[in-house]
Amino acid sequence: MWRSSLSFSSTRKLLSSSSSSSSAHRSFYSVAARPLQSLSESSSSRSVAAPPSHPNPSVSATSGVGLIGRANGVRRFASSSPAAVTAIATAFDVSSLASSRARDAVDLARHYGRCYWELSKARLSLLVVATSGTGFVLGSGSVVDIPGLCWTCGGTMMVAAAANSLNQVFEINNDAKMKRTRQRPLPSGRISVPHAVAWASSVGVVGTTLLAYKTNALAAGFAASNLILYAFVYTPLKQIHPVNTWVGAIVGAIPPLLGWVAASGEISLNSMILPAALYFWQIPHFMALAHLCRNDYAAGGFKMLSLGDAFGQRTSLVALRNCLYLVPLGYLAYDWGLASEWFCLESTLLTLAISATAFSFYRDRTMQKARRMFHASLLYLPVFMSGLLFHRVSDDHQDLSESNSLEYNELSSSLETPLEEDSFSSRKEIASRTQARPPVAYASYAPFPFLPAPSYAGPH
After folding, report:
1. Which candidate, 256, 244, 234, places its Cα nearest to that of 388?
2. Which segments show compositional bias classed as Low complexity (predicted)?
């Protein structure tokens, strides 16, 4: 018993002496030796308060010698390795600093990414990209150049982002006065004006250059001119005269023409169908928005037609008139060889539907009717573009029908036989070769299964 107590008391003395031997290693000893010291003290208290569990004193002596050896190891490491202790502490500091910097970098990237997204008006820019991509597909014929389509959409997205960013730079004071725009990056102070200008300039130059090198110079010229027209003509005109709505409609009509030119390299008559639809569609769309946000536009200092039209009579009339201008576009698309006759019918029905909402707004000029016309305008554009893509007639189909007719004429003129039966049989054989494919169920061609299936008639 005395030997065991002596052993544990010597252990405590050694631990206490190792803790007081060097003040430079006190922090390391507090981390490394404190659990061992508490273990030895608890063991010593248990040995003094209670009799040993083993009658043989050698067991206690052995455990005391083991604890003394561990304490001596800790003391020797703490007293003989100051460089190791410093290295471990430095490693901990470097790792914590690196993790802190990584978190700061992620937060900074997330902050500026959100600012760039809002500066670019990403949803509006994606709509511009959709119209440009539709124009590219319509101008491609039967074979669509997928890499060219991607380059066109990417360049259009960059130019649209640059135009929208410059628009917010010029309207920072106006946006700060409006309820729906005061939380944008510039009025809220989340990003500086020079930073926004640098962002807009860089993406605008890169997008225009991309279109020039990957498509053609004419498409790049349309992109650059649209950027200038939107940022430096339409934007200041919003604070001067209500004619800004019609100038903005021209800006919205250029992207589908840009896509067509990027695919075909030229401007044709049927390439104006989709730009015309975009132009006339934007007028009722903006008139509904101007009527709904009339007070907000007045607070921001924007000169809209609805500000001088308290009862909405002129605003609703302009919206109705431009909806009616959309009616003949389906027939023109069919007549000019851009789409099939079924698109003519579908486009007419769709245009009459949006015209009905405009007429309802004209008769009852309430916020509810204006909101209904606004929602109808949001639905009209994607349905119109989808139908135009679905029913488009490629140039190859037209060339094939023309070549078949020429082949028929050549063969019929070359078959000069004295017998009428041989002549009749040869013409019948040629007609069977040039006959169109058999009828197909109309359900695979349009979303109107109640209409009759189209008939395919061969040449007579």
Report:
1. 256
2. 42-51
Buried b (16+ CB within 10 A) or exposed e, 317-339: bbbbebbebbeebbbbbbeeebb
pTM: 0.67
- In CATH, the number for domain 268-389 is 1.20.120
- Find the helix packing angle between 2-20 and 57-80, rounded to 10°: 10
**Dihedral angle of Cα 186, 189, 194, 195, to the nearest 10 degrees:** -90
- Give the whole-number percent of the chain exceeding pLDDT 70: 66
Which token pair is 437? 């494919």
How far, in Å, CA of 313 to CA of 308, rounded? 10
Residue 42 pLDDT:
44
Q: Which CATH architecture has domain 116-264?
A: Orthogonal Bundle (1.10)
> CA separation (Å) from 371 to 117, 265, 291, 365, 375?
27, 40, 9, 10, 6
Q: For 168-177, how does the pLDDT look when each residue is reduced to its tens digit (9 = 90+)? A: 999 999 999 8
26-72: per-residue pLDDT in tens? 443 444 444 444 444 444 444 434 444 444 444 444 444 454 555 55
